[in-house]
Amino acid sequence: MKRNVYATYDVFPSYKGAATHIKEMVLESSKHCDELQLFCLRGSNELPPVQVEGNIYTKRYFNEEKLNYLQKASLFSKQLFIDIQKHKETIQIGHFRDIWSGMGLIAEPSIKTIFEVNALTSIELPYRYPNLTPSFLEKLKNLEAKCLQKSDVIITPSGVTKTYLEDNFDIETQKIKIIPNGTHIPNNFQKPEDAPDEYIIYFGAIQNWQGIDTLLKSITYLEDFKNLKLVICLSVKEKAFKPFKKLVEKLGIEDKIVLKSKLKKQELYNYVHYAKASIAPLKACDRNIVQGCCPLKIIETMACKTTVIASKLPVVTDLVSDQETLLFEPDREQDLARCIRFTLDNPEKSKEYASNAFAKVKRDFLWSIQTEKLEKIYKDLIN
Questions:
Q1: What angle do CA 190, 278, 197 make, to 5 degrees?
Q2: How many helices (DSSP H) and strands (DSSP E) are in the chain?
Q3: Which fold would CATH assign to domain 3-182+366-382?
Q4: What is the pLDDT of residues 81-132, one digit of tens each?
């Protein structure tokens, strides 16, 4: 029995973009073993603690709300290590997405390891817990350094992230490989019955670094477009939007906002396809500029043949040029409004942007293209 392990301190499946990425990585990993063991968080009682589909064995750990973040993360690492020890002689590759998953894998020297760095805990966590002490963040960085140094291969979806790793950690740079996010081309589209006649769209998570506040403020500069709506499709529960509702009320744009939550992929793509534009208003902050990311919403919008309007940041211009996307200065709601206005006033030019972007996504960003790169890494490690 030859096994691989894929471990992530995240709920899977879910409606988040991360789950899309995890699914593609897991499916590719499962092709290179008799059994793929997927270890993740359960999230709620809606998901079974143990599940078997084909040769993929999924074990979902607790998600006890009474535990704080660090207690839960530490327990996750320990439990993962225990489960790995049961089959360590048969495990070829341990593929992990974060330090909490990694600590349980790098502790077993017989396993070849892949660290998939989509985000670093030391940079992401302060956005969730702003009062973390410098000494605690330094401990996180030490754990990250340990995982990076002991991994056989490091995968990252962004050149910006690769540069950050090279500049801030003592690691062999040749073991860092870039595999961007990808997408599948939807087969067809059907306009949702409740979709507004004229709308722009934002979809995904709503952390502070996503720039939702900039997008909401930009709507106030478009009052002359009486019928224009902003459809926001959340990958989380609608109650997560509550902090932004006060801003919506303050701006007086309640009648402009349409909220949707946790849509299935095809339904989401239907909303995206019929939008006048899809907005990726990323903020100019450490998370986006220093650490880097690979915005899945941009790539999926391109596949839906919809015009993209995005912040002019390296993580965006790494993916697209100004021939495929309208770019605006980050955190500048007036400049974002200018781009939205241009799209609405120039439908033919807008279609040209979308057409160029669609051609690029077929050429560079299909999931089949990205998983071929992962396939080579797996084969090189196994052989």
A1: 50
A2: 15, 14
A3: Rossmann fold (3.40.50)
A4: 999 999 999 999 999 999 999 998 999 999 999 999 999 999 999 998 999 9
